[in-house]
Protein: DNA packaging protein
Organism: Acinetobacter baumannii
Amino acid sequence: MTREEKLEYLALLEEKARRLDEYRYRDFGAKLYPFQKELVWATKQYSQVMLMAANRVG
């Protein structure tokens, strides 16, 4: 690669990193469990919501 190509490649990598950081919440909903999605949708209608959960309680 020539120097110019390397600089262009570096600029593209930096732009990719910037976009990944800027849009990191775009895929947030895809990783949620159904009860978590329901909670997120409830915040659309209600200003206060609560999720009570625990690990290894039973």
About this structure: The two ends are 61 Å apart (CA to CA). Residues 3-22 form the longest helix (20 residues).
